[in-house]
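Reminder to self: tokens first, then the designed residues, so the page reads top to bottom the way the pipeline ran.
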């Protein structure tokens, strides 16, 4: 079953009175439960693409269908609701709320959903990313890698059908990076969460079932991993 259908997607920004095209004619369909990597040079449009797929931003042209819902037909509030129900997102720059502790940050999506035991579940998630003893820290009191792990716990918290992660290991040392990657793939196996990862780490990209390369705002290749481990 398709969880994400992207058709003829385009995005341009207005800058200095001109239209600056950032994405053009992007089309692909992702099946539920699969794992995907999006790779490409800096500035090629990966973060923009992830944001459009997750309903964080609206496309200029084309359509995104997430779990059967056409995002371009929704208002901003409706898109926020779809995100809270179906989507986990790990931002390239974490975007933790600075006035909330690690625990409170992880609790936000749970509270939005009206979960009763938000604090208990948030603490469990922080434990899984190895941060239970930092739960009362504010983002400024955490290292970059620790903030990344809080962002990961927050993205997991609403048990999303699809998780988008923008450079999830970008700021981590080898050991922590391995832990985070294992956690992502565990979530995929245990809960059937579809994983969409943007990464510069080719080893991580190699672990996914499908690899999409973007360059200059366009898809230049789309390959499936063979059983043998090579790309078709
Ligand atoms: N709000 C905006 N207004 C104008 N231009 C933007 C805006 N956001 C992004 N861009 C431009 O769109 C292009 C793609 O940006 P994007 O962040 O998607 O790249 P990326 O592939 O994620 O790069 P990186 O690997 O460095 O994170 C860049 O040239 C960027 O300058
Ligand atoms: Mg980016």
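Designed residues (232 positions):
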């Amino acid at each position: 079953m398709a969880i994400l259908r992207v058709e003829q997607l385009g995005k341009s920004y207005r800058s200095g009175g001109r239209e600056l095209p950032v994405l053009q004619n992007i089309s692909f369909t992702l099946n539920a439960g699969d794992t995907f990597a999006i790779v490409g040079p800096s500035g090629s449009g990966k973060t923009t693409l992830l944001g459009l797929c997750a309903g964080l931003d609206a496309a200029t042209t084309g359509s995104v269908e997430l779990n059967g819902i056409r995002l371009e037909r929704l208002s901003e509030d409706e898109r926020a609701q779809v995100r809270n129900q179906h989507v986990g997102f790990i931002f390239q720059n974490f975007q933790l709320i600075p006035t909330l502790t690690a625990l409170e940050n992880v609790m936000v999506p749970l509270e939005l959903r009206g979960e009763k035991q938000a604090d208990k579940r948030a603490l469990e998630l922080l434990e899984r990313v190895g941060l239970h003893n930092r739960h009362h820290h504010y983002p400024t009191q955490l290292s970059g890698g620790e903030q990344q792990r809080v962002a990961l716990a927050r993205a997991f918290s609403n048990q999303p059908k699809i998780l988008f992660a923008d450079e999830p290991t970008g700021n981590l040392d080898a050991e922590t990076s391995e832990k985070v990657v294992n956690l992502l793939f565990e979530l995929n196996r245990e809960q059937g969460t579809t994983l969409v990862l943007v990464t510069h780490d080719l080893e991580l990209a190699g672990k996914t079932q499908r690899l999409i390369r973007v360059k200059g705002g366009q898809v230049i290749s789309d390959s499936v991993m063979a059983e043998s481990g090579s790309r078709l």
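The domain at 2-224 is CATH 3.40.50.300 (Rossmann fold).
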